[in-house]
Amino acid sequence: MKNVVILISGRGSNMQAIVNAQIPNTRIAAVLSNSESAAGLAWAAELGIPTDSLNHKSFESRLAFDQAMMAKIDAYQPDLVVLAGFMRILTPEFCVHYEGRLMNIHPSILPSFTGLHTHERALEAGCRVAGCTIHFVTAELDCGPIIAQGVVPILDNDTADDVAARVLCVEHQLFPKAVADFVAGRLNIQGNRVLNTDSQPQSSALLV
Ligand code: GRF
Q1: Residue 87 annotated in ligand binding
Q2: For position 199, what pLDDT does the model report?
């Protein structure tokens, strides 16, 4: 059984998708947040999952917060730490501590559009596709070996909210699969690449 600790900052729909997937050999050991009002905490608590929060505003530095969060996380002896909409920039200390067992979801096709407002920026740039990326976390923001990516079309009349909703559906499929692949030992990090010993999808073009 592998222990997974999930960090959230808000509604936690990706966390819910991972919990609902009931991944074999996986115990969701805790759901933690930097905000006690994160809606996802109440959802998890109702299922009997341990929850806790630490308000980043009550720490004098980013590192002090990260160290306190690491202590909370480590109490659950995690095999994997999942950032599911955890809206904090992490210190190198945090990233190194969980190297190879820290996973993030980012709502763009990385390495394009790191940071915030990804869908607005994809629209402004005239992109015909948008998507999301699951990656192992390294100290550089929204970088690190890519585990999986999902792509959706951008349609002519789309707003950023339309794109976000379309991408979110893909996030909810992709993230539980990435966690399941990790737990099953199917992911091999080789430099910037992550090789997956699971069967690969048949190659097919997405023409938009
Ligand atoms: C998702 O779009 C994720 O890609 C981004 O933040 C959002 C979190 O949504 N990092 P939720 O809290 O999982 O619903």
Answers
A1: yes
A2: 74
Ligand 1 binding pocket mutation candidate from 14, 117, 169 (most atoms within 8 A of CB):
14
Residue 81 located in a structural domain? yes
- Assign 33 to helix, strand or coil: strand
Residue 201 within any structural domain of the chain: no
The list of the chain residues with pLDDT below 50 reads none
Whole-number Å distance, alpha carbon 85 to ligand 1 midpoint, is: 4
Q: Whose CA is closest to atom 9 on ligand 1?
A: 85
Question: Which pLDDT value is given to residue 35?
Answer: 97
Range of the domain at 125: 2-196
For residue 79, the domain's CATH number is 3.40.50.170
Length of the chain: 208
- Please check whether residue 183 lies inside any domain of the structure: yes
Question: Alpha-carbon distance 139 to 101, whole Å?
Answer: 13
- The reply to whether ligand 1 has any atom less than 6 angstroms from the CB of 53 is no
Q: Which residue's alpha carbon is at the smallest distance from atom 14 of ligand 1? A: 13
Task: Please indicate whether residue 13, judged by its CB atom, sits closer than 6 Å to ligand 1.
Answer: yes
pLDDT of residue 55: 97
Give the tokens for residue 32.
């933690």
Q: Per the structure, how many domains does the chain have?
A: 1
Q: Is residue 110 part of a domain?
A: yes
User: Read out DSSP for 123-158?
Assistant: HHTT-SEEEEEEEE--SSTT-S-EEEEEEEEPPTT-
14 in a labelled binding site = yes
